[in-house]
Amino acid sequence: MAGAGISTPSGIPDFRSPGSGLYSNLEQYNIPYPEAIFELMYFFVNPKPFFTLAKELYPGNYRPNYAHYFLRLLHDKGLLLRLYTQNIDGLERVAGIPPDKLVEAHGTFATATCTVCRRKFPGEDFRGDVMADKVPHCPVCTGVIKPDIVFFGEELPQRFFLHVTDFPMADLLFIIGTSLEVEPFASLAGAVRSSVPRVLINRDLVGPFAWQQRYNDVAQLGDVVSGVEKLVELLDWNEEMQTLIQKEKEKVGRGSEPCFPPSVSLFLVLGLFRGEQVHACWG
Ligand code: APR
Ligand code: ZN
């Protein structure tokens, strides 16, 4: 499970970090309250603030960081059942995690829908308008086109409901860079069996890690990249991570967008990780 905190090392602000989070820096958009920027009723009245923000967040301006590539390495090793992300920056796809392994629970810029005639379009068709500070309009009915980002009150994508089978099957759950403030995504943290270890890698304790820990929860608090680096060290995956990151960087260097796409006993390593961490944060 990933949130905006996994992308802050890539230069994208998260939402709720005091001072630096997006919701603390929306004065320029002149909106009544922070979440209005993701509310349909406000969007229909004034889509401009959302598109001004979209210009900042539009995929293509940022690169994945170490934490994204760790999730990609889990996939490469056949250990990633599915990545549920709240992020709309698309960096999981850029890191090479294939779409079938991804659930973009709060939508994506990859596609867009006309708010009047409901026609679907590739998101790329409107990048130009957004970058030119223009509100994109439907070529058929002239209605406003909205990227398929899930606004507050909107249905989550159908793929989100894969959780019904995924979470009971999981034998380890990572929760990385999220405040676990937004439902129904946040409740997924409680959807794994009680015997399944949950590993939080986050600046602070959040959600059930703050108020209802399980005996086998592990929290690696602090910066997300340092936390993931510590785990990679314990797993002895440093070399594979460096090789992967180098390979992906060379792909970008060649101008092409990176194309998308053994068994270590994570439990044993987790035991080491837990011993070192549980004492530190709950000792
Ligand atoms: N290292 C570790 N933790 C970090 C880092 C970092 N570099 N940067 C941020 N964090 C932590 C923050 O401390 C916070 O706990 O990541 C979490 C980010 O929380 P939010 O800003 O609330 O982002 P997120 O959980 O993804 O928000 C969920 O809210 O507004 C909606 O749709 C929006 O998808 C978003 C949802
Ligand atoms: Zn239309």
UniProtKB/TrEMBL annotation:
Record field: catalytic activity: N(6)-acetyl-L-lysyl-[protein] + NAD(+) + H2O = 2''-O-acetyl-ADP-D-ribose + nicotinamide + L-lysyl-[protein]
Residues that hold Zn(2+) according to the record: C114, C117, C138, C141
Chain ranges passing through the membrane: none
Keyword Ribosomal protein recorded: no
Gene3D superfamilies: SIR2/SIRT2 'Small Domain, TPP-binding domain
Pfam families noted in UniProt: SIR2
Keywords from the named record: Metal-binding, NAD, Transferase, Zinc
Domain named Deacetylase sirtuin-type: residues: 1-238
Protein name: NAD-dependent protein deacetylase
InterPro entries: DHS-like_NAD/FAD-binding_dom (IPR029035), NAD-dep_sirtuin_deacylases (IPR050134), Sirtuin (IPR003000), Sirtuin_cat_small_dom_sf (IPR026591), Sirtuin_class_I (IPR017328), Ssirtuin_cat_dom (IPR026590)
Organism of provenance: Aquila chrysaetos chrysaetos
Keyword field contains Cell membrane: no
Membership in a protein family: Belongs to the sirtuin family. Class I subfamily.
Residues at the catalytic site: H106
Known function: NAD-dependent protein deacetylase.
Cofactor: Zn(2+)
